[in-house]
# Entry
Amino acid sequence: MARTVFVTGASSGFGAAIARHFAAKGDRLILTARRIERLEKLKAELESSAKIHLLQLDVQDRSAVDKAMASLPADFAAVDILINNAGLALGLEPAHKTDLDDWDTMIDTNCKGLVYCTRALLPGMVARNRGHIVNIGSTAGSYAYPGANVYGATKAFVNQFSANLRSDLLGTQVRVTCIAPGMAETKFSLVRFKQDAGKAAGVYAGSNAMTASDIAHAVMYVTDQPSHLNINHIEMMPVSQASAGLKVHRKG
Ligand code: NDP
Ligand code: 8X3
# Structure
């Protein structure tokens, strides 16, 4: 049976790949992001295989999130799967040199936006006793690296919020999964380095990084499990990436 899937940040990267994978199964999709023209292109690509509803949505805007959910057409209103994917990193400077506005934006998007979307759709899932929330975290939420300061902290929030949701939802059939990828080649670094294409390309050069489709495969795996089974957490990295030990700064 076709599922109704709500994807945040569907205009690029993981979100667009996730949309393609669900569309290939014939699921109904609500695709959201700020850049509506990109969503329109994706809809044109996918609408031969899936029913698609687009919403221009900035997840940082709490009242816009509430209005968007209330505006869903009847055949899209009973959301089965929420993919909380919209997010970003801004900057890689040490904490004492960062732009505080960048920190605000990351917290407002990666934490508050994710919470707003979850809170808006969760009551319906609980009432129907059916649903799945898939949160896109990051290895940056578990492993510290220089310049990850607030970005990593927002993803640690995603990880713990996911675990805490499971506690609250015990006794219901609503599932929660956190998928925490390491380095994957998308527009992520272009956004982080504020459109500096050279710097962004340098992140992935020679790394054989993961692709957006790799992450979409993981999303399909967790959402295709039989209904008695909850995959709590998936951490995934390219083989070329690993946490490689603590560093010591020595005098002299
Ligand atoms: P992209 O930059 O390619 O895509 C990010 C998506 O998030 C875009 O669709 C963008 O849409 C959307 N977005 C950003 N801000 C907002 C907002 N305020 N409201 C609504 N949508 C928003 O990056 P990725 O696909 O790589 O990133 C997707 C998620 O994966 C993020 O949460 C990121 O932190 C996480 N991640 C990425 C990794 C990587 O290495 N690429 C690794 C681990 C996690 P628009 O600008 O049109 O609004
Ligand atoms: C993105 C992965 O390693 O760039 O969340 O922080 S990393």
Notes: Strands lie at 4-8, 28-33, 52-56, 81-84, 131-136, 174-181, 233-236. The chain has one domain: 4-236. The mean pLDDT is 98.
